[in-house]
Design brief:
The chain is an alpha/beta fold. The chain is 38% helix and 22% strand. It has 15 helices and 18 strands. The strands form three sheets. Strands 2, 3, 4, 5, 6, 7, 12, 16, 17 and 18 form a ten-stranded mixed sheet that branches. Strands 1, 8, 9, 10 and 11 form a five-stranded antiparallel sheet that branches. Strands 14-13-15 form a three-stranded antiparallel sheet. Helix 7 links the parallel strand 2 and strand 3. The radius of gyration is 22 Å and the shape is globular. About 10% of the residues have low confidence.
């Protein structure tokens, strides 16, 4: 079975609900966003924090470095950087390219939810929602198809800055809280309630549709390399010739995390010399599996990645260009390709879920009816020639094998109880 199985009649009905392209909403003016610390001073603060830790405990794992650089409360990239997404940011994501991406995911979600008998109440849980653009497109489809009754949206977002950006895009109003499991709550124009949490463990129980778009690639990774037939961990150390710079080194002996990996996944090191693993990804997968077992639900992971055939993919992006991940920490996004073979192994080890895929972004979107949807949008009498060109260019970027079409993968997660049904398909 793959992620293409969507009833054609259902898709045809879902794609025809609107003939008018949706105008993207820009980020709120800088004056209305929470103040950000001076970037240069924040960068120096982060460098000093990292140096102090290394001097106190010795070289640190890449995972520890990555976590500090991205989520340090005072100077982390996601916690203090302004518009990190889009043309003016450091990278651009599929939802920002065109509305069709989010719409096709919405169609898939409603279709899969219908297979479960449309349980209500139910939740849409998005891990790492970005600007909130994909959720906005999904909710528009849900409202149009009249399936929002009993729906609550749960946004798992560590960055209060990004949560405010998301709230301004999604809600007619929102309120901050300090005495509840969620730290922000709002309501959309159509009445759907939206809540923001710092971690998945705070989200209430219940049947849930999980969405993780470019989420797992940003979770901290440990890097292991084989040197003279001996596995060692890649660590971050201070560059001896410069107190403000860092360098990669190999551990002199087996580290605790390397021992854990070799003991738990000895089969994954065969025929490989370089492995990246995120134990935080494993933790999130286990939490999703437990929720499937207790309450039911399903999940869709969308990310760039490979099938266990790549080694070193850790890198940084700044202003849409590759950047040295050890230079000016906190000023650039850090990322690593998702190892879908390992991700599948995490899912299998829970004994609580079964997986489908991964399949390419191009295959998923075309199977969901993206080509037909594009034709409908292009046929609108109110659309300008400029908008038509943007729609076509965006669609090509999403589906072209040389661009995002093959690089990005879609991976479905379902309760273990559905294994026999899925295998039949």
């Amino acid at each position: 079975m793959n992620l293409q199985i969507i009833p054609r009649l259902f898709c045809q009905q879902a794609r025809k609900y609107s003939y008018k392209p949706v105008k993207r909403v820009s980020l709120p003016p800088a004056s209305k966003l929470p103040p950000k610390p001076d970037h240069q001073s924040g960068n120096l603060s982060l460098i000093n924090d990292l140096k102090s830790r290394i001097l106190a405990t010795g070289p640190i794992p890449v995972a520890a470095y990555m976590k500090q650089v991205l989520t340090n409360p005072a100077a982390g990239y996601y916690m203090t950087t302004g518009d990190v997404l889009g043309k003016k940011g450091d990278f651009i994501t599929s939802p920002e390219i065109g509305q069709i991406f989010g719409e096709m995911i919405a169609v898939w979600c409603v279709n899969e939810w219908s297979k479960f008998g449309r349980p209500a109440p139910f939740q849409l849980i998005e891990l790492g929602p970005g600007k909130g653009t994909m959720m906005r497109d999904i909710l528009r489809v849900f409202d149009t198809l009249k399936v929002s009754q009993g729906l609550a949206v749960q946004m798992v977002e560590m960055s209060e800055h990004l949560s405010e950006v998301q709230a301004k895009l999604l809600c007619r109003s929102s309120t901050e809280y300090t005495d509840k499991p969620y730290y922000r709550a709002g309501v959309t124009a159509s009445g759907t309630k939206v809540y923001w949490y710092r971690q998945l463990t705070d989200v209430p129980e219940g049947f849930a549709i999980f969405l993780a778009h470019e989420f797992f690639d940003a979770l901290p990774i440990h890097k292991f390399m084989k040197q003279e037939n001996v596995w060692k961990e890649v660590l971050v150390d201070i560059e001896p010739k410069s107190e403000d710079k860092f360098r990669f080194i190999l551990s002199k002996s087996e580290t605790p995390m390397l021992r854990l990996f070799l003991n738990n996944y000895p089969d994954l090191v065969k025929d490989r010399n370089h492995i990246e693993i995120s134990f935080e990804v494993e933790s999130v997968i286990r939490q999703i599996g437990e929720r499937f077992h207790a309450n039911g639900g399903f999940a869709l992971v969308v990310d760039y990645g490979h099938l266990g055939d790549k080694g070193d993919t850790f890198r940084a992006f700044k202003n849409h260009k590759l950047h040295d991940p050890l230079v000016e920490p906190g000023s650039a996004d850090l990322t690593a390709d998702v190892d879908f073979r390992m991700l599948n192994r995490f899912c299998e080890d829970t004994a609580q879920m079964v997986t489908i895929g991964p399949t390419s972004q191009r295959t998923f979107l075309e199977a969901a009816g993206a080509n037909e949807r594009l034709k409908i949008l292009m046929s609108s009498s109110s659309i300008s020639e400029g908008d038509k060109q943007r729609l076509q260019d965006g669609f090509k970027m999403l589906t072209d094998p040389e661009q995002m079409g093959e690089r990005f993968k879609f991976f479905g997660l379902y309760p273990k109880e559905l294994e026999s049904f899925i295998k039949e398909k």
